[in-house]
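Quick one, T. Sequence first:
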Amino acid sequence: MKAKVKSVDLGSGSVGRLVARLALPAVAAQVINLLYNLVDRMYVGGIEGVGMDALAGLGVVFPITLIVSAFANLVGLGGAPLASIFLGEKKEGEAARVFNAGAVLLALFGVVLTAAVLIWCDDLVRLFGAPAASFTYGRDYLFIYAIGSLFVMFSLGLNPFISAQGYSFTSMATVAIGALLNIALDPLFIYVFGMGVKGAALATILSQGVSAVWAVSFFFRKKSAFRLEPRLFLPAPRIVGKILLLGLSPFIMTVTESAIQIVFNNNLTYWSQGNSDYTAALTAMLSANQMVCLPLNGLGTGVQPLVSYNYGSGDTARIVKTVKIVTVVALCGSTSVWLLSLLAPQVYGYIFSATPAVMELICRYTPFFMMGTVMFFAQMTLQNVFVALNQAGLSIFLACLRKVILLIPLCFILPHFFGAPGVFYSEGIADIVAGVITATTFFVMLPRILKKRRAYLELHAKADAAPHI
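Structure tokens:
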């Protein structure tokens, strides 16, 4: 197979234009996904008579759906940068092996997760803390969602391999098709057909199914550098190991997002003595957090093909230029949301129609909760560049740093000194500390990583040029 990345010239095109062409669709896709999540919850919350219980049920199973998505990220966000590096090295055969190994892993994970969730559906809903009034809604949604796990694997897991070839708008379409179809089907199934939460789940898996078909069909087109090749379906252990090691960082980031939501909710319930206003305020703050996290994460993943390809080819000057542009853009974005959160936190209350009591909590504690968002340019964007540079060890450490090492312990410790507000303080403190460490690590290590890469390529070039006797 001869790879032809015709969509954009990752090796010689204008870096500024490439960043815009690759990153904008990725950011747009994340924004669309954010809007879908918000609208989806609004539809379920509007079910007459049971809306709040149904919404609580979805809230309980949402971390479980995040875990399913994490396995798709493990393969897609681990395999795609690796394939890009091989394309940059002109090792098309290795890139093909990575892609086909990824496709097989996605299928295996999809089958195993489907079986596991269907078998232990009730136990999982109880384990994640469903109130008695919400248990049925959570179980109904999760059971139907599990049937479509394979769709989730292929739509989320194969999409990075589309981006890896430079087809950023096609990659964006994979997300947009599913999200917009879901938004359209939700009211039809929930209200018109009277299916309630089951309708919301059915709309989700049908939409993911369409996205999955769109993603899979791309690899049957002539323009794709990758093909599904049955002869490569038995992956070599070394390829599987490289994919999983590099994908471990985004996997951890997604799984810990699930874990921290559980920790937040349980600690707030305990320290506020069951005051649901604190939980409602937290929901608004977490949604505000997503408004900056998802676009910045999209920016980082969007430029991964550009960074990985040039890392493979050894053009470190293009990598440095890409990093400069991305850092400035990400810093401007994170600073904007940071200023909004400090100066006008009531905006988030208006977005979610907060009651006066909840609005007071939002205005009082959002500046503390969001005070570390200025550093998200490093945590969300530059960390993805580390993955693109094949730095699995650093990426895993930084993925664990913010939530596992800092945030979760702080969330348990600070309420002993400040009560329920300590939960809000823990987020801001963890974000600042993790962001400073990530930014420092990145800018100290980047020159060393690139110097080591140049030395490696020069050594191999000399070996290839030497006469063989």
